[in-house]
Amino acid sequence: MSLWESPFYLLQVATETRKTAILSAAEERELLQGDGTARELANRLTNPGLRLEEEVAWLPGVSAQETASILQQVKAAPRKEPQSAALSRSSDLYCAKANVLAQRVAEEGPGAENLTDMGLLMQYTERIVPEKLMEQINQNRRAAGLPAVESVAKVKQALEKQQREWVRLCKLALDRYQSEHIGLGLGMLLELLTKKRSQRAPQLAYSLVDAYEVEAQGFFAAATPALRELVRYTSKRAGEDVSQVELAYLLGHLLRLTYTWEKLAQPLELAKESRLQDDRQSRQVAVDLCTISAKLLMAAAREPGTKLVFWADALIFLAGLKVIALDGDFLQNRARNELAALQKLTLSGVSLPSRKAAVAQTQGVIFQFMQQKQLQGNMTQEIQEIVNTL
To answer: What residues contact residue 339 under an 8 Å CB cut-off, 6+ apart?
Structure first.
């Protein structure tokens, strides 16, 4: 639930408010607003067991005065970071900081700022220590004259429930993105959190990916077999005497389907890679693409000049292997081997002007792929060197 749905907010009471004052606030709300749920709201704050969940979902450890200031700022400017010592970088009130940030994530529109806030939220949740959180909650309870929480296990249980709420809010935020940008946005978020796949992401990120995967399964169940069948059929036709028009149509369709498939698969690939898990489905797609690329290159070499589209599209596939597929050592080596083979192919039948024109057209597509996926490093330089030799 949002901060505005919390019993603390609805009854206008603080975590230090005593039981008699909570009951009085509930009675006043029932009389003035005719709210039949007021007593249940009060019960959730006066019953020690029920109260714990509400405390974890609120601003544990924050004083009444600071809480009022934070809420006032969030209400006035939902997309701005409230100024408060309790929410500063040096503060260890990570649960409170996460709940305030989750409110902003839920109310922001799509964009880089939303993804950054989502990433920061996930980092905050990873830093929450249940024992420390219990101390913060008990500090407020002592001021309210309520029994202290003595079980860390119960705090962990309440925290797990709140983590599901944080995932739900992040999922709602992603759902506001255009459908074709959801996978890309989640992929960018994972790249940020894993520091370009060099470390594990916070657990909340993987929970969000799991929720995304459940919804994407329908697409993969239909698209993956279709993609593999299209690769098989295109590969078969590439080895036969078919018209350039027919093969160009098949290649164009294959490129579009592969790119769509990868946009949705990328977050799952990143999540599995950062957890040191093998994504067999993506690996097989990459191997299939590598196989058809080699066939296209050989077909182009047999009939230079008349089938430039074959080796041009093959170059897109080969240069894009790091983009379209995984970043595992196996595929990097396979891509480099294929690129080396490309250099050795004899294209003597192609005039220099025609070769430069084909390369210029192909180069634009390659760099568009790289820009969209923010590729950097040796592979970019390697592709550029090979393009220059053609």
So the answer is: 318, 319, 382, 383, 386
Return the half-sphere exposure (C-beta side, CA atoms, 13 A cut-off) of residue 272. Answer: 16
Q: Which helix (H) or strand (E) holds 58?
A: none
Tokens 């595992």 -> residue: 328
Contact 326, 371 (CB under 8 A): no
pTM: 0.69
Backbone angles phi, psi at 370, to 5 degrees: -65, -40
Q: Please tell me the distance from the alpha carbon of residue 166 to that of residue 176, in angstroms, as a whole number.
A: 16
Distance in angstroms (rounded) separating the CA atoms of residues 31 and 218: 50
CA of residue 61 relative to chain centroid, distance: 30
Is residue 105 within 8 A of residue 114, CB to CB? The reply is yes
The secondary structure of residue 4, as a DSSP letter, is G
Determine contact, residues 250/234, Cβ cutoff 8 Å. Answer: yes
Q: pLDDT tens across 305-335, in order? A: 545 445 445 545 544 443 444 444 444 444 4
Q: For residue 70, what are the CA distances in angstroms to 45, 243, 295? A: 21, 68, 63
Residue type, 257: L
The predicted-structure confidence for 232-243, as pLDDT tens digits, reads as follows 888 787 767 777
**How far is residue 11 CA from its own chain's centroid?**
36
What are the boundaries of each domain within the chain? 3-176, 216-389
Query: Tell me, what DSSP letter sits at residue 326?
Result: -
> Which value, in Å, is the radius of gyration of the alpha carbons in the chain?
28
